[in-house]
Structures are given as C-alpha cells and as structure tokens.
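Write out the 3D structure for:
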Amino acid sequence: MSSKKKIVRRLLSEAEIARLPRAGLLRRLAALLYDMFLVFAMWMILGFILLFVFGLFADNTSELVDGRVQTHPVLSLLTLAMMVTSAASFYLWFWQRTGQTLGMIAWRIKALRTDNQSIPPKQGLIRFVAAWPAFWLGGLGYFWLYVDKNHDAVHERMSGTKTVLLPKDARPF
C-alpha cells in the first residue's frame, strides 16, 4: 500500500474565489521568473526570424565601427517593438483566457479583476504597462503590497485587478 495521499483537483465556487487571500511577494516574483524564461525563449525565436527576414531585404544589418557593433536603427526599433508586443500578448492572452500564466500555475496564483471575473484586454494592458515601472523602480510597486490594506501591488490598484493564492486542491484552469 502506498502512504501517499492523492490530491483530487476541484473547481472553486464563486464564493470560495471571493474569499481567497492575496498572493505574497515571493510567490509573485517566482512566477515572474518562470514566465521570464518563457518570454525570453519567445524573444529568441522571434529575434532570429526578424534577423532572417530583415537580412533578406537589407545589407549591413550590423557593422563593426571603432570596435563597437552598431545595429541598423530600423532593426533596433523593430526588435524593441517585437519584444514589447510579444511580451504584452503573452500576458494578455493568459490573463484573459485563464487568469494564469504558466509560472502562475506552477506557483498557484491567479490574476483576476477585483470583482473576481477574468481580466479583459483593456485592464490587462493597464496592468502590463503599469507593472514595468513597478518592477524596475527598485520593486517599489511590488513592495506596496505590504502597505496596501488589500495587499495589492501598485499596478493592480491602477488596473482594478488582484493576484490571489489558490488552494492546493484547486484546478489550475
């Protein structure tokens, strides 16, 4: 006989979802790290495609000038636009579809509107755009959850969303 307990996954009711606690900072950052690996892999693939396509139509995409590599300015702008657009699309698709990216599934957290519904594109875009300075300004936007009465980060307050911790027996989707 096996002494391991089998966990039965279940869907949460609306009342249970409303009572879920907010996710802590370390869980959020761990999920962000997982997602960063996925987004970086996506950028690598899209970057290779962009370089291949751009290389077909333009000579000298990069040059060595005074010991420094200089990339064609159009290619640099296209790369930046591709990176921002693909990262936004990644998060918006997952948040709108299930409320969870792959990193969020692994760490049992879920992003929802404050009324416990899935995040629509407009709110998701506000959340995504506001999260960048929240993270890059020394994480101050994330540390705000220790000050906020609901334990929300700044980008969640701005977008009307929240990040909750799911119980172990909850189904990820």
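The radius of gyration is 20 Å.
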